[in-house]
Structures are given as C-alpha cells and as structure tokens.
Amino acid sequence: MHLAEMRGLPQALAMLLRVLQAQLSALWLCLAPFSCRLRGALLPGRSPPLLEEGAGEPDGAEVPTVPTSVNYHFTRQCNYRCGFCFHTAKTSFVLPLEEAKRGLAMLKEAGMEKINFSGGEPFLQERGEFVGKLVQFCKQELKLPSVSIVSNGSMIRERWFKRYGEYLDILAVSCDSFDEEVNVLIGRGQGNKNHIENLQRLRKWCQDYAVAFKLNSVINRFNVDEDMNEQVKALNPVRWKVFQCLLIEGENTGEDALREAEKFIISNEDFERFLDRHREVSCLVPESNQKMRDSYLILDEYMRFLNCRNGRKEPSKSVLDVGVEHAIKFSGFDEKMFLNRGGKYVWSKADMKLEW
User: Fold this and answer.
1) Percent of the chain predicted with pLDDT > 90
2) Where does the pLDDT of residue 292 fall: very low under 50, low under 70, confident under 90, or very high at 90 and above?
C-alpha cells in the first residue's frame, strides 16, 4: 500500500501500517542474499552449490584428534633385559594411583574407547595390584569397551585373574621364540624360569577366567628364520601381533640409549619372508617399522604423549597439566596409519563370541 492510499484511512491505522511496512522492509534486506542463493540453486538444471572444505568453520580451525585407543606405559621398570627394547628403564617414576585415575577419566571424556597398559613390566608395580586397580577402574567406573595389558607374563599369578580377570578384555603376552635358548639370547628370561612353559600356563588361565589371549612377537636377527606355525596355532590367540624390530634414538640406539639394538635389526625383505612363511596363520597381524612408528598414541609414565616421528620419543606436556586436547596435538599420531595397520578391531571380549 502506497502513501497516497494510506491518507484515506484513519490516522491510527495508517500509523500501524507504516510500522509494519518498515519492519517488512528491514526483514527483506536481511533475507535477500539468501533468497538469491536459493533461487539460483533451484533453477532447472542446476545443482545446489557444494560447501567448500572447511566452510562454516573458523579460519585455521583444527578438528581435534580423538584418543580412541591409548597405550599407557605407566612404568619403565622391567625384570627382563630384552636387547631390542624401545621403552627402557630411564626413570623409576610411577604416578600415584589417584592421579593416574584422574588422567584416565580425562581421556575417557575426550573419547577414549580402549586403554592398553604396558611398561616396562606392568606387573612389577605392587606385584600387579597397581595395574589391577587401574583395570578395574577403567572397566567398572569408566565403562570402557576395551581394557588390555601387555606383559612378559613372568610375574602374573592365578590369584590376579581371580581378583581382576573379569575386568580385563585382553592379555597380550610377549614371546619372540619357541626355542628357550633363543629367548635367553634375546634377553627375554629370568633365572631358571622357562618362558615358554609360563606362556602356556597363562594361556590356560586366560581360558579359565574368560580373558582373550593375544600373542606379541618381535622379529629380529635371532628368530627371523624360525617356523612358529605349529606353536602359534596350538595357542590359538585372538591376535598374533608380529613386529619388525625397531630402532628408537635414545632408547635402543644412540649415545644416551640403555640398549644397543643394531645387532637385532632385520631388513624389510627378511621381515616379509617371515610373514610369508606364516601366511596360513589367520590371526597374524604384521607391523613393519613404517606402520609402528606413528600409528600409536603412547603415554609415558608422566602421562605425556610421545611423538616418534623423528625417530626418537619427544614428549608433549602432561595431560594432567594441559588437558588432552592440547597435549595430543604434539603426539605425532597418524590416524590413517592407525586404521591401515588394523588398529581398530573387535576389542571387547563381550563382542568376540569366544568359547570359554
């Protein structure tokens, strides 16, 4: 309605119409750009325009890394002396239990689904009670889908399974050879204890107490020619992780290292030859040096993420001090490689459909 038409109306009504007209004009000015885009997008033969990558996000914004699967090396101390060890006893520090729990709760809040406790030897601290309490906390209170441990197995007793077995999804036991002399040569032995006999005992306890059994082996110069087909199939692990021996500056190579692992190193061709020899083992999961280096989220004893991209372990600040989102930016984590190496799998024993 134009101004001339308004003059014939009562004064109050004319004033009301002016106010409404002003409001509609202002609304149109706001909506006009959007209506033009929409009209152009809906013209016959035209597809709606695609958003450019990053549209709708602030310039330079990063998508936070989610710590889906975390490896917490809460101790560096160990009772074995494996010559190729790449997480050596450079400190004796262990976080107080409640501080460790606080950090784990922060990781869960940030999206953690799986926690793996490792070392060093995790059963050294309080004869397994420390790791047992962490396992129980993660399953019972944090309700994580998967809780696992990597151990050399030498200090695990059946009473531990009776107390904590229900809270543990996977126990991974390290065994590099089924020849006891080779294990001793590598450094995976302690006094008169037989590593292979203990491995078989642990396999039975895992069966008895409904814990999924996993086997870890580091392939090196002293076992690369071994045929392990028969023994691995007899143990029937849910997974057999086969690692190529890896050098890490400051851990097992270099001036400040506690190990000299150069004599254990094998070529990529030798590693592939070992894998080919065991191709009939369905549970085998191979990890070459390339796959290992950047595909793990590793927390050290201070709850710092360790970045291995430059061939040595460079720590972030502690999760406990700066939070998960900030600390994880310095982890060097390669999520694509994590998925490529099979890092995401059925990792909760409730979903494995195993016969106990």
Assistant:
1) 69
2) confident
Q: Are 88 and 257 in contact (CB under 8 A)?
A: yes
**Neighbouring residues of 339: CB distance < 8 A, sequence distance ≥ 6:** none
The CA distances from residue 18 to 30, 152, 249, in Å, are: 19, 85, 79
**Strands (DSSP E) along 8-133, which ranges?**
69-73, 114-118
Q: Give, in degrees to the nearest 5, the angle at Cα 267 between 261 and 270.
A: 115
In this structure, are residues 234 and 278 in contact, taking their beta carbons and an 8 Å threshold? no
How far is it, in rounded angstroms, from Cα 18 to Cα 182?
Answer: 95
Residue 41 has phi, psi (to 5 degrees) of: -70, -30
Answer whether 301's CB lies under 8 Å from 95's CB. Answer: yes
Nearest to 94 by CA among 109, 79, 112, 72: 72
Q: CA nearest 148: which of 130, 171, 129, 125?
A: 171
Cβ proximity of 221 and 261 under 8 Å: no
Q: How far apart are CA 294 and CA 343, in angstroms?
A: 12
- pLDDT at residue number 60: 52
Residue 37 φ then ψ, to 5°: -60, -45
Asked whether residue 279 carries a pLDDT value surpassing 70, the answer given is yes
What are the pLDDT digits (tens) for 23-50? 554 444 444 334 333 333 333 333 333 3
pLDDT at residue 13, as a whole number: 56
How many C-alpha atoms does 228 have within 13 Å on its Cβ side?
Answer: 30
Both tokens assigned to 324? 């998960």
DSSP 330: G
Q: Is 245 helix (H, G, I), strand (E, B) or coil?
A: coil
Count of Cβ atoms closer than 10 Å to residue 38 Cβ: 11
Tokens of 115: 């926690």
Q: How would residue 168 be classed by pLDDT, with cut points 50, 70 and 90? A: very high
Q: Which residues are catalytic?
A: 78, 82, 85
CB distance 117 to 148 below 8 Å: yes
Calculate the average pLDDT of the chain. Answer: 85
